[in-house]
Write a structure and sequence with these properties.
The protein is mainly β and about 110 residues long. About 0% of the residues lie in helices and about 55% in strands. Strands 1, 2, 3, 4, 6, 9 and 11 form a seven-stranded antiparallel β-sheet that branches. Strand 7 and strand 8 form a beta hairpin. The protein is globular and about 40 Å long.
Length: about 110
């Protein structure tokens, strides 16, 4: 798996959520697929994100705990792992370290 995306368009304006604890940029690849590249900072509160399309979140670095939709059990994800969130759902993420991620909008 490559560690970079080639031939992309990048939205200049950042998506800033939760008072700057989550910051990302949207990129669009040559084939029209979109992704967000971002960082989530440590927080004592869980961050909740809603989805409109299916998303696959790939953890590039760091470790976090994620609860997807109405699932009762949260799971831990680390660098090199990913998790899927269905469309029109949500996920709750907590971390005590910096998370670097790619969100694949699928």
């Amino acid at each position: 798996m490559s560690n970079q995306f080639d031939f992309v368009s990048i939205k200049k304006k950042a998506n800033v959520h939760y008072e700057g604890r989550s910051i990302s940029h949207v990129i669009e690849l040559e084939d029209g697929t979109k992704k967000t590249l971002g960082v989530i900072l440590p927080s004592d509160k869980a961050l909740i994100f809603k989805t409109h399309v299916p998303e696959r979140i790939e953890i590039i670095s760091g470790k976090c705990t994620v609860q997807i939709g109405d699932e009762l059990e949260a799971k831990i994800y680390s660098s090199g792992e990913s998790f899927n969130v269905p469309e029109n759902s949500k996920f709750k993420i907590t971390t005590d370290e910096v998370i670097d991620y790619v969100c694949h909008l699928e």
